[in-house]
Amino acid sequence: MISRKPVSGVVASCLSAGCFDLQAGERLLPEIRPFVVGTRFQGKINVDYAPLAGMLNFYVATRKLPGQLGTISCNCAYVGADIVICDKAFLETFSSSVNFTQDSFYGEGSREIWTNQADLFERVNQITSSILRTWIIGHEIGHAVLHAPTSSERRIAMTKAKENAADSFFLEKASVGHDEKAVRNLHWGLNQLIMQIIVITFKDGKAHVAPSSDDIHEPWILRAIALGQELTDRGPEPENDYYKSLSRDISVEPGGGSIGSLCQFQNLRERATQIQKKRLGEH
Ligand SMILES: [Zn+2]
């Protein structure tokens, strides 16, 4: 049965019932703010109170949500009425998916590399996590800015075109007007995800990836490549065909590899390491 209660009311009751970690929302403010600059939400972000009209309302969920919000388990979503909700476990797992860990190194001296360079890896992990986290945050804010349902629509229908527009929104806000370093970091973050997925799904000269389960989003690796390409097109070397050539080595097919449920999966770099180890052992 579809609930007829307005989504803002459902979110407000959920908030009183303790569904959301408001402090987690506050900690995200520095990463949320850049995405509302120049939009109708500039200076109007609410992470502390029940949904407020005219503001971007952003919440981090820590438990299974009731009713029509139930689909947000292990996900982030724009739910209409200027409200974005992110599952905390999803945000944390996805953003740390390609971080360096001790188990992401193998071979002689790997323990020393990990211990001796702990500070360096920590800094790199922070940059990578922030890129992946802001991708998710910026994408959902993109839906809120670009795809607010009209009064006659109860829910917005998400299409591939809208998904691509939300990803482009993220990229534009995260790159245009930013310095070279920010752009380099974006390439870095996207490439870490791309490379680890390639290692995990590589067989007979190609990466074989499964279609996304919702049939609306492209698989993560193709979304990351499309963003990298867009970033290249906007940059000083639009003729650089790095991402184009990468995409030729990826085949999307049923039965292909996937990065799994984003709330349960193992760090992709650790998975890739185990696979590499096994491959080396076979020779
Ligand atoms: Zn989306």
From TrEMBL:
Q: Protein name, please?
A: IrrE N-terminal-like domain-containing protein
Organism superkingdom: Bacteria
